[in-house]
Design brief:
7 helices, 3 strands, about 75% helix
C-alpha cells in the first residue's frame, strides 16, 4: 500500500471511530491528521488535506483544543497559526477519559442521583424504579471512581516507575 493511500485510510477510519467516542467525524479526522503529522499543520493545510471549509476546520480545531488533545504552535516569522496533537498515547487516553467523564458520566450521575432519590408514589412500579436507578447510580459512580483512580495512578511517578519495571 502506498503512503498516501495508507494515510488516507487511517484518517478516514479514525474519523469513523470518532462517532463512537462522542465526537463528530471531521473532528476525529483532524485529530488523526495532526496525530500522524511529523510537523505542526496550519489550518490551510488541514482544510486542503481533508477538503473541508474554513468554518468547519476552525470549529473543530477549537473543540479539539477544548478537549486538551491538540495545541497551537507558533513559528517565528509566520502569521499563520499551526496545530499539533498530543503525541503521548497514554496522556491522550487520560485526557479523552477525563473529558468524556466531564461531558457524559458526570451529567448522567446527576440525573441518576435525582431520579433515584425516590418519587411521590408508593406503587410497586415506583419502588422498583427507585431501586433500579439507585443500583445504576451506584454502578456508574463506582465506574467513574475507578476511572479517576486510574488517572491518578497514571499521574503518580512511583506507579509509573513500577509499571515500567513490570514491562
Amino acid at each position: 500500500m502506498e503512503f498516501k493511500e495508507a494515510k488516507n485510510k487511517f484518517v478516514q477510519s479514525w474519523g469513523a471511530l470518532g462517532s463512537q467516542w462522542g465526537i463528530n467525524k471531521t473532528m476525529a479526522q483532524i485529530h488523526a491528521l495532526l496525530m500522524i503529522a511529523p510537523e505542526p499543520l496550519s489550518m490551510e493545510d488541514i482544510m486542503e488535506e481533508l477538503q473541508i471549509s474554513r468554518g468547519n476546520a476552525s470549529m473543530n480545531l477549537r473543540a479539539l483544543m477544548d478537549w486538551g488533545i491538540i495545541y497551537k504552535e507558533y513559528k517565528p516569522g509566520e502569521r499563520r497559526e499551526f496545530f499539533t496533537s498530543e503525541k503521548d498515547l497514554d496522556e491522550l487516553a487520560v485526557k479523552i477519559a477525563q473529558e468524556r467523564s466531564k461531558r457524559e458520566i458526570k451529567p448522567a450521575l446527576k440525573v441518576l442521583k435525582e431520579v433515584s432519590s425516590g418519587t411521590n408514589e408508593n406503587s410497586a412500579e415506583a419502588k422498583h424504579f427507585t431501586e433500579q436507578t439507585a443500583k445504576l447510580y451506584d454502578f456508574v459512580l463506582k465506574a467513574d471512581n475507578m476511572l479517576e483512580k486510574s488517572i491518578e495512578f497514571k499521574d503518580n511517578w512511583l506507579a509509573r516507575l513500577v509499571m515500567k519495571i513490570m514491562k
